[in-house]
Predict the structure.
Amino acid sequence: NGLSKPVRQMSVGVSHAAFLTQDGEVYCLGKNSCGECGADPAVHGMASAVRKVKFPRHCSPILRVECGKAHTVAVGAEGQCLAWGDDSKIQLGLGDTRSNVGDERPFSGSRGFIAQRETGQAMAQTSALRGGPESSGARAPSTSQKKYGEFDSHYQWRPVSMMSIPLEFERQVHGTPYPPPSDVKCGDDFTLLLVRDSPDWFPPEEESCRMFCCGENGRGQCGRSMQQQQQIFAACKLPRNSMNLGFSCGSAHCLSVLRRVGSKKQELWCWGSNSNGQAGGTNAGVVCPASRLRLPKGTRVEAAWTGFSSSAVICSDLKSTKNV
């Protein structure tokens, strides 16, 4: 069966697709082995006809939808980020759902000791999993949005709200949260959110934004570091005080066009897998953290797109436009 309503936006993943209608409803079609089409995969392994996705009442109408390899992300009417499908690489943005034990790293070891000296924050006791004289049998509580049992498959077939974006150092002092994302993109098994970083009273020429990524990072897809193979939301290592003019995700690489505050020059930044030269680096492995790609002199990048393992940019010739 087809759709009887006009389609405003669509996104196509590896084996499923999502359609956003004019009235803000989302329909999915294709493979549903991880619930990426919004249906229980134990009952419906495939959505052979378009299937309407049910959202919490306060989230409708939906403003945007994006598909990854086996997960789907949507932005609600009030800026809520919802995700469903495969969560094996923590790409749904629900926190570190690989374990039901909370993250003790900020409160233990040298990091915990320094925090205790500087702020008075108590250090975590020795984990019960490691044992020790201070072990009390207690565990740090999980900070993820969802928990999985020991033998549960790591997927969500109902739309679930993502975790709040962790505050960077400058915002931690005042506890100022980030506004709802202005754009979202998905790779195979990672998710990118773009949020405004500057105050809302700044003029357009001084606006800046930050990009946050969660999910698989084995090929540097998150653009920050290679310290973790999967990571919860963390900022991509792009220039501060810059405005993102457009970004795109391939299977395991990303491109971003940005402009720094106070400058008219537009820059192209790339990160992720470079096995086929799709990230523009000189090596055939990984580009991480994000790196600026130098273009031929006299050209300005206008837009960038990515395919599965390819990239393309549109550039303008400054020599022919300088007198326009």
About this structure: The longest strand covers residues 209-216. The helical segments are 109-119, 169-172, 318-321.
